[in-house]
Every structure is written in structure tokens, then in C-alpha cells.
Design brief:
The structure holds two protein chains of two kinds. By secondary structure, chain A is mostly beta strands. Chain A is built from no helices and eleven strands. In chain A, strand 7 and strand 8 form a beta hairpin. The N and C termini of chain A lie far apart (about 40 Å). Chain B is mainly β. In chain B, about 0% of the residues lie in helices and about 50% in strands. In chain B, strands 2, 4, 5, 6, 9, 10 and 11 form a seven-stranded mixed beta sheet that branches. The N and C termini of chain B lie far apart (about 35 Å). Classes of the chains: A mainly beta, B mainly beta. Chains A and B meet through strand 5 and strand 10 of A and strand 4, strand 5 and strand 10 of B.
């Protein structure tokens, strides 16, 4: 079955960095674009970034552009999000989500991981 | 950026009620709209894609309609498991954006 499992979250001081991972199984990873979506405690959903299925194209939310980097290793079936220069407002649960349609950026997300929590605090 | 505005922000209803949630886009998005359900402590689940297409495995009491800027999610007869928060999401252009959410709770 399709699974996405995030890891790498934790408590980090402002200005520091983390690398989040999303390990996938149950589908052909190299055929699907994957997105990161985050949710601050008690708040709504915020789209963060996307990487195309072949890794050739990426897009970011303005709030993270220049600080976050999305990447993927199709040989390891793993997606990454390098989060740098962390701010208090980056505190959130970070979800990776698969698009419903292969070989496209996708318009919607049919499978989600359980999330990894990033807490930025001094 | 395209802004997505949901209404109401919260609604109380009873089992068996019909509930409608609306989502308005700040500019036309054709049918590039999805709806998600999220329960506390869980990841969102896709309900509707392309404004009106029911995701596989989602009960038929859920339906979506609309195009352009105005969209609705309707639950025809509320069941106990439907009490949750609902989000719309546009994918017409980057950055993708979500509505602020509508919390549906028990009256």
C-alpha cells in the first residue's frame, strides 16, 4: 500500500537548520511529484513547496523562498526538505503529500504522511 | 497569489442534516479546486478533486460543485464521522493556496 513517512523534525533554535525526510513506498516514486504542506499548531494548512517527479523543477511559497530547499533521491525513494534560517513562524507539523496524477505537478494530494513536527524555540 | 476564502468558519449541525460549505477564489481558477477533510491529530484526506469529482473510497453523501470563483462542498446527510475541519485548495497556479478551514461540529 502507498505510504509516506516523514522524519527529521524536532526542537531547534531560531536561525538554525534541519533536514526533513519523507520516505515513500508502495508506488513508483520517480513518476510522482511530491509536495510539502505545513500546519502551525491550531492553524490551517499552508502549502510550502513542490518538486517535479524527475526533480527538474521546483516551486516554493514566498514565506520560505531562499531559506528552504526541496530535493529528492529517486534511487532511495526519499524526498527531502532542507529548512534553514528557521524562524518562530516556521513552527508547524510538516506533511509530505503525493499528487493524484503521475507525471504532472498534480492538482491535489491523494496520499499524505503522518507529519513531522518542527518546533522553533530558544 | 490567489486567495481562497471559506464560509462559514464554523458550523454546528446534527446527524442527518444537510450542510453546505462555500469557497471563493480571488480570481478565476476554472475547476482547479479540491476539498479535504481533516480530523484532529490526523493528516488531511482528499474528498473532491477537479471541483466535483469524488475521490475513490469517499462516500457519495459528499459532493462538490462550482467553477470559476465560487465553489461548494455539500454533505447530504451528516454522519457522526463527518464532524471535522474542511479545507478547499486551489491548484490553478503556484503558490497553491488553501482556504482557512471550516470546522463542523455537533449541535
Amino acid at each position: 500500500q502507498v505510504q509516506l513517512v516523514e522524519s527529521g523534525g524536532g526542537v531547534v533554535q531560531p536561525g538554525r537548520s534541519l533536514r526533513l525526510s519523507c520516505a515513500v513506498s508502495g508506488f513508483t516514486f520517480s513518476s510522482y511529484s511530491i509536495h510539502w504542506v505545513r500546519q502551525a499548531p491550531g492553524k490551517g494548512l499552508e502549502w510550502v513547496a513542490v518538486i517535479s517527479y524527475d526533480g527538474s523543477d521546483k516551486h516554493y511559497a514566498d514565506s520560505v523562498k531562499g531559506r528552504f530547499t526541496i530535493s529528492r533521491d529517486n534511487s532511495k525513494n526519499t524526498l527531502y526538505l532542507e529548512v534553514n534560517s528557521l524562524r518562530d513562524e516556521d513552527t508547524a507539523m510538516y506533511y509530505c503529500a503525493r499528487v493524484r496524477s503521475a507525471h504532472s505537478y498534480g492538482s491535489d494530494f491523494d496520499y499524505w504522511g503522518q507529519g513531522t513536527l518542527v518546533t522553533v524555540s530558544s | 497569489d490567489i486567495q481562497m476564502t471559506q464560509s462559514p468558519s464554523s458550523v454546528s449541525a446534527s446527524v442527518g442534516d444537510r450542510v453546505t460549505i462555500t469557497c471563493r477564489a480571488s480570481q478565476g481558477i476554472n475547476s482547479w479546486l479540491a476539498w479535504y477533510q481533516q480530523k484532529p491529530g490526523k493528516a488531511p484526506q482528499l474528498l473532491i478533486y477537479a471541483a466535483s469529482s469524488l475521490q475513490r473510497g469517499v462516500p457519495s453523501r459528499f459532493s462538490g460543485s462550482g467553477s470559476g470563483t465560487d465553489f461548494t462542498l455539500t454533505i447530504s446527510s451528516l454522519q457522526p464521522e463527518d464532524f471535522a475541519t474542511y479545507y478547499c485548495q486551489q491548484s490553478k497556479s503556484f503558490p497553491y493556496t488553501f482556504g482557512q478551514g471550516t470546522k463542523l461540529d455537533i449541535k
